[in-house]
UniProtKB/TrEMBL annotation:
This is Putative lysosome-associated membrane glycoprotein 1. GO terms for biological process: establishment of protein localization to organelle. Residues 217-248 form the Lysosome-associated membrane glycoprotein 2-like transmembrane domain. Belongs to the LAMP family. InterPro entries: Lamp2-like_TM, LAMP_CS, Lysosome-assoc_membr_glycop. Disulfide bonds join C42-C80. The chain crosses the membrane at residues 216-238.
Amino acid sequence: MARLSFFSLALLLVLGTLAASQDIGIPDVENGLIEDENNVTCVMVQGTISFTVNYTAKANKTEVVTVTVPEHGAAVTGSCNGTEGEQYIEITWGPVNETSSTRMTFNRTKDTWSLIDFTATVFMGKNFVNATVYGEKLDLVMNYNFSPLEIGVNRSFNCHSHLSAFNVTGSLDGAEYDLPLGSDLTNIQIQAYNEIIGERDFVDSVHCTADNTSDVVPIAVGCALAGLVVIVLIAYLVGRRRRSAAYQSV
Ligand SMILES: *[C@@H]1O[C@H](CO)[C@@H](O)[C@H](O)[C@H]1NC(C)=O
Ligand SMILES: *[C@@H]1O[C@H](CO)[C@@H](O)[C@H](O)[C@H]1NC(C)=O
Ligand SMILES: *[C@@H]1O[C@H](CO)[C@@H](O)[C@H](O)[C@H]1NC(C)=O
Ligand SMILES: *[C@@H]1O[C@H](CO)[C@@H](O)[C@H](O)[C@H]1NC(C)=O
Ligand SMILES: *[C@@H]1O[C@H](CO)[C@@H](O)[C@H](O)[C@H]1NC(C)=O
Ligand SMILES: *[C@@H]1O[C@H](CO)[C@@H](O)[C@H](O)[C@H]1NC(C)=O
Ligand SMILES: *[C@@H]1O[C@H](CO)[C@@H](O)[C@H](O)[C@H]1NC(C)=O
Ligand SMILES: *[C@@H]1O[C@H](CO)[C@@H](O)[C@H](O)[C@H]1NC(C)=O
Ligand SMILES: *[C@@H]1O[C@H](CO)[C@@H](O)[C@H](O)[C@H]1NC(C)=O
């Protein structure tokens, strides 16, 4: 009896750890989705998208501002482009005449899709009151090393890990912006070229490489617990054999 409960407790621990490493729950699409005329939601994006801008303040020193795309209440536009050409999704936010926006463009090669262009236009409004460039629009081009780069059609890209752009270039009225710029993505989930009719949520996701390495921890814990079970069992069996040997010698 004691052996059984000890064993099942250990097994429960192992199963619990494995379950914790799986994705639980269905996400709500917050940032936006784009639908074609047949009710096929071709592009969906969700997650935290931010841009970091260093600027020169009037006091002649460098300051930094992080602009985050709001996860609720932004306007979303885009194109499914007949599911053949390039698709895009554009998220626009901010007050009238002071809007900022970001756009992701996707391309498809047979049965896979990839992000081919990621840009933004940041209106340097109230967060930039002390900037010498206050009230101007800064155009940004982001370069991310997504891994994997190509995702199967009907599948989404999912990355819990924090991703940083390796290069962000900016321009103001066509002139190159010469202070440091950055961009980050957290908990990002993207899907383009979805063909499943009536599916307004992300389907089978492909995790980024960065997430796979973080799975190592729960798997290691699971293996350690499984090892513990084996050790306890062996100790028990050895102990029982010793005891029965002791009985025989009496
Ligand atoms: C799309 O969905 C709307 C509302 O659910 C419905 O009225 C319309 O008929 C649908 N269109 C097609 C082409 O299925
Ligand atoms: C940009 O801003 C960051 C954060 O404040 C700062 O550490 C860095 O030195 C700034 N870069 C320049 C060139 O001023
Ligand atoms: C700001 O700094 C630059 C170089 O560091 C200098 O040339 C310029 O005169 C300074 N401007 C003011 C207003 O202090
Ligand atoms: C549709 O795709 C083509 C090329 O594949 C591209 O040139 C065009 O701009 C796209 N149209 C829209 C509305 O995105
Ligand atoms: C936006 O800009 C237009 C044209 O410059 C102007 O007529 C309008 O009043 C502005 N709206 C707001 C809310 O500032
Ligand atoms: C988009 O994909 C098509 C083939 O599917 C290819 O010919 C074209 O060069 C790609 N465009 C870009 C910008 O990668
Ligand atoms: C702008 O400068 C003033 C005075 O130096 C300061 O009190 C204020 O916090 C600054 N605002 C921002 C957004 O940096
Ligand atoms: C960033 O991109 C720009 C324009 O494509 C290029 O000139 C620059 O060398 C790149 N910088 C890095 C660090 O890759
Ligand atoms: C995607 O799913 C739709 C609906 O299930 C299916 O018709 C289509 O063939 C699938 N596309 C690919 C490339 O698997």
